[in-house]
Amino acid sequence: MEVNVGIIGFGNVGQGTAKTLIKNRSLIEKKTGIRINLKTVADIKIDKLPTGWLKGVKLTKSADEIIEDEEIQIVAELIGGINPAKDYIIKALKRGKKVVTANKAVLANYWDEIQKACSDGKTEIKYEASAGGVIPVIESLEKSLVADDIIKIYGVLNGTTNYILSNMEEKEKPFEVLLKEAQKKGYAEANPYSDISGEDAAFKIFILTLISGKYAEFKRVHYEGIDKIMPVDFKYAHSLGYTIKLLAVSDSSDGKLDTFVRPMLVPLSHPIATLKGSLNKVVIKGNNSGETVYEGYGAGGIPTGVAVASNIVSLAVDIASKGREVQPLKRNFQKIPFKRDEERVFRWYIRFVVKEGVGIIHKLSGCLARYGISIKAIHQEEVPKALYSKLPFVITVHKTPEPTIKKALKTMEKFPFLVIPPLLIPFLEV
């Protein structure tokens, strides 16, 4: 049997998907008995893109040409961004097409509308590549772990930030230099905001939370970025037995849902601590199944293209079996209370950069004491006298509610001896 496919968007992921489908066409047919025919590719800049290797594939600037083609059964939306991608997805679903997307922004912002378009059971959308790339995290949540109550999902869900942080750790280069390196290597976009700010990982952890069966709201996903981290933070982290990773976390283990993305201190003994380069790693904890760990490339044209192509093949098998495969889960989300800010309690790492002076530690510790915050330790490495105008040191404190520690830091920012605002990072509790 032959199944016709159309790709909307022919950037890195679109090209990676097409290359996978064409290169592995015979392999896919041997495994499934289905011939995947890439019929049409649409991109508004199609005449400026490398398409000479697409033999027998129709090229067009119009996405509607794919959506309205009755012979095309599966549409892959790979243009990125929210508009017009969302409109293409909804329109294709309403025309009875099966859809594959890697678009986490659309899924995070229009999840309910997209699921409603699939509610008649005649069509379906798959999105494995939207959260974790080639790592089969979504498939595991939907199939392998569907019988368990998922109480925690956490890990590194953005390859760009992991590349920057792991290289900062190893090479002691500053953030700005490493960001430019990441852009040159294609790990970071020309506008890197979504990656660097934590937004990209926030989209992904939100999607994974929904797929795990928990009701979530994207506006409640707190996210922070990595641009304030300095090489010296890794020196102090190592001295404490930790490293620093940008972690995405969805935690309902105490009966309240907490979803966030932020830099965290991770024990050097933890599996995530050793993750290098642009790799992703996700840990899923079930109430009965315990922890399962997934690692692989979460971004890049070919790895993401493989995930998209695999979703396409899965839908093609469903078409060939005339829908006899299990239909998409009708999601009745488990609604549990959202964790309030004052219930978010961590041990904290606070890094200061100060001018040399007398009584600095006394003033900082006094400020913490006024807010009832207990200091665990003070750490300061020797620095050359020439650097006394910018002295870094660290105070670690015992478990404290996040609003309390932030109020204390807000007060500290008024101290004239501070060169830059303090950096606050929580410890990962495992």
Descriptive overview:
It contains 14 helices and 16 strands. It is of the alpha/beta class and 430 residues long. It has 3 domains: 2-134 and 300-320, 3-Layer(aba) Sandwich (Rossmann fold); 139-297, Dihydrodipicolinate Reductase, domain 2 (2-Layer Sandwich); 341-426, 2-Layer Sandwich (Alpha-Beta Plaits), CATH 3.30.70. The protein has a 6-stranded parallel β-sheet with strand order 3-2-1-4-5-6, with helices on both faces. Helix 5 packs parallel to helix 10, helix 7 (159-171) crosses helix 8 (175-184) and helix 13 runs antiparallel to helix 14 (402-412). The longest helix has 20 residues, at 301-320. The protein is elongated, with a radius of gyration of 24 Å.
Entry keywords:
single chain, 430 residues, alpha/beta, Rossmann fold, Dihydrodipicolinate Reductase, domain 2, Alpha-Beta Plaits, 3 domains, 6-stranded mixed β-sheet, 14 helices, 16 strands
What's the gist of this structure?
With 430 residues, this protein is of the alpha/beta class.
